[in-house]
Design a protein that fits this description.
The complex is a heterodimer.
Chain A: H1 2-19, H2 23-31, H3 36-52, H4 57-68, H5 74-86, H6 92-139
Chain B: H1 2-8, H2 13-20, H3 24-29, E1 30-36, E2 42-45, E3 48-51, H4 60-70, H5 75-83, E4 86-88, E5 94-104, E6 107-120, H6 133-136, E7 144-148, H7 154-167, E8 172-176, E9 184-185, E10 188-189, E11 197-201, H8 205-216, E12 220-223, H9 232-240, E13 244-250, H10 254-257, H11 261-268, E14 274-281, E15 284-291
Parallel strand pairs in B: 7-13, 7-14, 8-11, 8-12, 12-13
Antiparallel strand pairs in B: 1-2, 1-6, 2-3, 4-5, 5-6, 9-10, 14-15
The chains are: A mainly alpha, B alpha/beta.
Chain lengths: 140, 292
């Protein structure tokens, strides 16, 4: 989910910087993407926007974070909530800086997760090999 | 009614409810809504002003709500026009903004603490240009200026003339700097401008006009509100290429324009042949065509 959100936020930056696309349109575009996890998150934001209206963007964003991002750490969720307070309220440059900051936070989590998976993968490979060797010795 | 529906959707619930509760006749006659912090909302119709019956004055939060809704929750998309004091919303309405300007190096950086809004609700006036068409197109289309004071329906008449000319087969290029003529929304004009219209919106008149002339081969170039020297190159470019011109200007009549330096310069080129002046008589708009 982290990598999907990071990719989505990079698209968001491009849309804001290049086309000054309104936030509602960006959310809709990301909601209809094929990416399962980020698509689900932005679809929830879009649904909430329809229900509550654009003036309540921050509240809609917060609801979507609560519903769809429970798998993320509290730091990552906090980064997303902080971003929700900024989106739609400032000029393009300021918004892009905030999105970049959020991407950095998510990326830190993503890298830590990736590192843990790699370490775990090595550990489990080692354990598997060791177990195999022991089994072979026992059988012999 | 569609524009008013779009406008109503911008308001907090109680104000939206009050607008919806107005009689159909009043709703149809609404020209402007005046929203000022600490005061009740005023509804201006063709017959006068009345107070919108809501038992509280407008608050800062109400104004923020309207502005946020109008920008589609995206300040960055509307930042440039907000610097110039307006936002164009779906349905073609224009919201004029007043507040504290944040200046940097002599330029407006932003408008904050917005204190009042003026929402102009446009209405297509199908048929209002019918009587003018023979005068303006007697020997092919003649370059035309639409002249009137603010709020008299220049843009409405311009829009209707574009629609009529377009229906008659003229290729019309519209340099819609403020997005009021066509009111594009997601690439679709919110007003019927006929089948032969190409529109560039939210680009300065001069830049848009030059782009349109070079790429769309128009018969007529239409623009709203010639107000500055910066608009002249577009007019000269169009005229030099043999493209017809249809534009609006603020003024009471052609003679009043001749007092202004900008129009003395413009008239010295003998580009425009016709002027349509709009006046109100007994609450009705009256169009007078004069030769320039």
């Amino acid at each position: 989910m982290l990598s999907a959100l990071i990719s989505a936020f990079r698209i968001m930056i491009c849309e804001i910087q290049t086309n000054l696309t309104p936030m509602g349109e960006i959310i809709q575009m990301l909601a209809s993407s094929n990416e399962k996890y980020s698509g689900m998150f932005f679809a929830e934001v879009s649904k909430q926007l329809e229900l509550q209206g654009v003036p309540y963007f921050t509240r809609c964003w917060k609801t979507a974070v609560t519903f769809c991002c429970s798998a993320l750490t509290s730091t990552e969720q906090e980064a997303l909530l902080t971003l929700g307070n900024v989106l739609g309220r400032y000029d393009a440059a300021e918004e892009c800086v905030s999105i970049e900051r959020c991407i950095m936070e998510l990326n830190t989590g993503y890298e830590a997760l990736r590192h843990r998976y790699q370490t775990d993968a090595r550990l489990y490979t080692g354990l598997g090999l060791a177990a195999g060797c022991i089994l072979a010795i026992v059988l012999l | 009614m569609d524009s008013l529906t779009d406008v109503t959707a911008l308001f907090p619930q109680d104000f939206a409810g009050a607008l919806k509760n107005l009689s159909a006749a009043t709703q149809n006659a609404i020209e402007e809504l005046r929203i000022r912090r600490g005061l009740p909302i005023l509804v201006k119709t063709s017959t006068g002003e009345k107070v919108l019956s809501v038992n509280r004055p407008v608050t800062r939060e109400d104004i923020d709500h309207i502005v946020l809704s109008a920008t589609g929750g995206s300040y960055h998309s509307a930042a440039e026009t907000m610097k110039h004091g307006y936002i164009t919303v779906k349905g073609g309405s224009r919201i004029g903004l007043c507040g504290e300007g944040a200046m940097r190096e002599g330029q407006i950086e932003a408008l904050r603490n917005i204190s009042s809004l003026c929402i102009r609700v446009p209405k297509p006036a199908i048929g209002c240009a019918d009587e003018l068409m023979p005068c303006l197109c007697a020997k092919g289309f003649q370059n035309t200026l639409i002249i009137s004071p603010p709020g008299m329906g220049k843009t409405t008449l311009l829009r209707e003339l574009i629609r009529r000319l377009s229906k008659d087969g003229f290729r019309i290029a519209v340099a819609d700097e403020r997005g009021e003529i066509a009111s594009m929304h997601h690439g679709v004009p919110q007003f019927d401008l006929g089948p032969h219209v190409d529109i560039i919106t939210n680009v300065t008149k001069c830049q848009a006009a030059i782009m349109l002339i070079r790429t769309m081969a128009p018969d007529i170039l239409a623009m709203d509100e010639i107000t500055a020297v910066a608009d002249l190159p577009a007019i000269l470019e169009a005229s030099g290429c043999g493209v017809g011109l249809l534009t609006t200007v603020h003024g009471s009549d052609a003679d009043s324009l001749k007092q202004k330096k900008l129009f003395q310069d413009l008239f010295s080129y003998d580009i425009f042949q016709k002027a349509v002046c709009i006046q109100k008589q007994n609450g009705n708009r009256v169009y007078t065509v004069t030769d320039l």
